[in-house]
UniProtKB/TrEMBL annotation:
<dbReference type="InterPro" id="IPR052543">
    <property type="entry name" value="HTH_Metal-responsive_Reg"/>
</dbReference>
<dbReference type="GO" id="GO:0003677">
    <property type="term" value="F:DNA binding"/>
</dbReference>
<dbReference type="GO" id="GO:0010288">
    <property type="term" value="P:response to lead ion"/>
</dbReference>
<dbReference type="InterPro" id="IPR036388">
    <property type="entry name" value="WH-like_DNA-bd_sf"/>
</dbReference>
<dbReference type="InterPro" id="IPR001845">
    <property type="entry name" value="HTH_ArsR_DNA-bd_dom"/>
</dbReference>
<dbReference type="GO" id="GO:0097063">
    <property type="term" value="F:cadmium ion sensor activity"/>
</dbReference>
<dbReference type="InterPro" id="IPR011991">
    <property type="entry name" value="ArsR-like_HTH"/>
</dbReference>
<dbReference type="InterPro" id="IPR036390">
    <property type="entry name" value="WH_DNA-bd_sf"/>
</dbReference>
<protein>
    <submittedName>
        <fullName>Uncharacterized protein conserved in archaea</fullName>
    </submittedName>
</protein>
<dbReference type="GO" id="GO:0046686">
    <property type="term" value="P:response to cadmium ion"/>
</dbReference>
<dbReference type="GO" id="GO:0003700">
    <property type="term" value="F:DNA-binding transcription factor activity"/>
</dbReference>
<dbReference type="Pfam" id="PF01022">
    <property type="entry name" value="HTH_5"/>
</dbReference>
<feature type="domain" description="HTH arsR-type">
    <location>
        <begin position="9"/>
        <end position="104"/>
    </location>
</feature>
<dbReference type="GO" id="GO:0032791">
    <property type="term" value="F:lead ion binding"/>
</dbReference>
Length: 235
């Protein structure tokens, strides 16, 4: 009896895994999900343009994404907006981007230099600067080389700077190394990555652009990035 139940549970898990993979297997849905990685809420019309499909086809894709809990719909007045359902979904997509790049035939990277330098990736910082930040944390022994553990020293130093990590009731990892799809190296993810982006924004170290994932560092941000983390940048 126990063996039968276990097989049924395994079968259910396998079915759910297949459904999850099927959601991302469609190119139009993948384009929508990648667009939503900027952390904003998009309208169905905007997402149909991104995916280059008709409004009716976009609605069908969004219904599927909502059904499988990849995306949630938000109503505001007469308008409906769509955003990623959770940080866990964003982390899954980011890791998938890394796997996709790592397993593809090597080719010249065509990502715009501004996005390669610094960009938002859902709720955390990505790009060259974020990768260098990860390397700094590891070299200072604030973070383990795999990015999975923020050390006691790391928590102590960040707290001294006023960077406090709040996990709340979330099951999200405190820290994780996310494979940056443009740099092919790790940048900080998890609660740590989200906290750093929020703190940089509050300190006015960075500026974001509406409708773009591009991030620029302000003059104070450029100075502080160098003095606090030893990272030199000119933009």
């Amino acid at each position: 009896m126990v063996s039968v139940m276990l097989k049924e549970e395994e079968g259910e898990l396998e079915s759910r895994m297949a459904l999850t993979a099927a959601v991302m297997a469609d190119k139009s849905r993948s384009r929508m999900l990648c667009a939503l990685m900027d952390g904003r809420a998009w309208t169905a019309t905007e997402l149909s343009a991104v995916a280059d499909v008709s409004a009716s086809t976009a609605s069908a894709h969004l219904a599927r994404l909502c059904e499988q809990h990849f995306v949630v719909a938000l109503a505001q007045g007469r308008h409906r907006y769509f955003r990623l359902a959770s940080a866990e979904i964003a982390e899954l997509l980011e890791r998938l981007m890394g796997v996709a790049w790592a397993t593809s035939t090597p080719r010249k990277i065509t990502t715009p230099l501004s996005l390669r330098h610094a960009r938002t990736c859902y709720d955390h910082l990505a790009g060259e600067v974020a990768v260098r930040l990860f390397d700094t944390f590891v070299s200072r022994q604030w973070l383990t080389p795999d990015g999975e553990t923020l050390t006691e020293l790391g928590q102590e130093k960040l707290t001294e700077m006023g960077i406090v990590l709040f996990t709340g009731s979330s099951r999200r990892k405190l820290a994780c190394g996310c494979l940056d799809w443009s740099e092919r190296r790790y940048h900080p993810g998890g609660v740590l990555g989200a906290t750093l982006l929020r703190w940089f924004t509050e300190q006015k170290w960075i500026k974001t652009q509406t409708g773009s994932r591009h991030v620029t560092f302000t003059p104070p941000g450029i100075r502080k990035l160098n003095s606090e983390f030893g990272i030199k940048t000119t933009r």
